[in-house]
Design a protein that fits this description.
This protein is of the alpha/beta class. The protein has twelve helices and eleven strands. Strands 7, 8, 9, 10 and 11 form a five-stranded mixed β-sheet that branches. The protein has a four-stranded parallel β-sheet with strand order 4-3-5-6, sandwiched between helices. Helix 5 packs antiparallel against helix 6. The radius of gyration is 27 Å and the shape is globular. The chain starts with a helix and ends in a 6-residue tail after the last helix.
Length: about 300
């Protein structure tokens, strides 16, 4: 074969090879649309807003619903019970020990956790190529707004998030305005009692809610949600606001508290100044927090017009 014929065949081969390459389906490399740095300092990148979400916390579930995105929720925890429509969504177990197998089987493109998420769970989901973010803003009441706006950002619902936060802020401003000149009763917010005395200490968002509601928190100097019986007796509050214990009704918690030493000897107990408040409403930092503040203010200042 002559050199010229060989050169022509070689050129034809390379042309056909390159054409074959172009004819092959190309793997689409989606550009990064957004990135989010979560509360653990992890930077998570997304090529598009998630369409299949699993919530690992009740306040996350409530926020997704309040943003009008309940249709995106494909999984929740056993504790996610509001709004009632979420009962139709599959549960992946408890906050502390969710079923990784069940979670993965639901094929989410994003898992959103709040304050309870283990390193082991994060590692398991990463191995399964499932994105997870942790959004924990529970140090302050204003963190509620940030949490809502962060979730709205991830869902592509920034406009709805800003509108929701604006409405909440108006409600909060009204509560503060109506209570600022009223007497500030000394309040103890009871979460648990007995072997462990739990309350809203000064490093909690509920402490800030008490202040915004026009009350003085006797446990403000304490931390980590704990308070001693001795200090409770010493500071003898004007009012005790009770968040019913897990598995008990408000009546059951109040009766148990009122019949146990040293609590039954407190002035608030003797005078009947014990008021219960919905535990889910007050403890979940989310879209109902402004309503919780209203409810708290009414408990502290009976007869107030809000």
């Amino acid at each position: 074969m002559s050199r010229s014929k060989f050169s022509i065949l070689l050129v034809a081969f390379f042309l056909s090879f390159n054409l074959a390459l172009f004819a092959q389906p190309q793997v689409e490399q989606k550009p990064v649309k957004l990135t989010y740095t979560d509360s653990l300092g992890r930077v998570v990148a997304f090529s598009e807003n998630p369409r299949r979400i699993i919530s690992l916390a009740p306040n996350v579930t409530e926020t997704i619903a309040a943003l009008g995105s309940l249709d995106l929720l494909v999984g929740r925890t056993d504790y996610c019970n509001y709004p009632v429509e979420v009962s139709n969504i599959p549960s992946i177990g408890t906050l502390y020990t969710p079923s990784v197998e069940k979670l993965i089987s639901l094929k989410p493109d994003l898992v959103i956790a709040s304050s309870f998420v283990s390193d082991q769970l994060i590692e398991s989901l990463q191995k399964a190529s499932i994105k997870i973010v942790c959004i924990n803003k529970q140090e302050t009441f204003s963190g509620t707004y940030a949490m809502i706006e962060d979730i709205a950002f991830l869902l592509g619902k920034e406009k709805e998030g800003k509108a929701l936060v604006s409405t909440m802020k108006n409600t909060v401003s009204n509560v503060v305005e109506k209570t600022k000149d009223l007497p500030k009763p000394r309040v103890y917010f009871l979460i648990d009692f007995g072997s462990f005395d739990g309350t809203a200490t000064g490093d909690t968002f509920i402490d800030q809610m008490l202040s915004l509601s026009g009350a003085t928190n006797i446990a403000k100097s304490a931390s980590n949600w704990t308070y001693s019986k001795e200090l409770l007796v010493e500071n003898d509050p004007d009012l005790i606001i009770i968040s019913p214990r897990w598995g008990e009704t408000a009546k059951e918690t109040i009766e148990a508290f009122s019949s146990t030493k040293p609590y039954k000897d407190l002035r608030s107990t003797k005078e009947g100044n014990l008021v219960s408040i919905d535990a889910d409403l007050i403890s979940r930092q989310g879209p109902r927090s402004a309503l919780a503040l209203q409810t708290l203010a009414k408990a502290i200042h009976p007869g107030i017009d809000l």
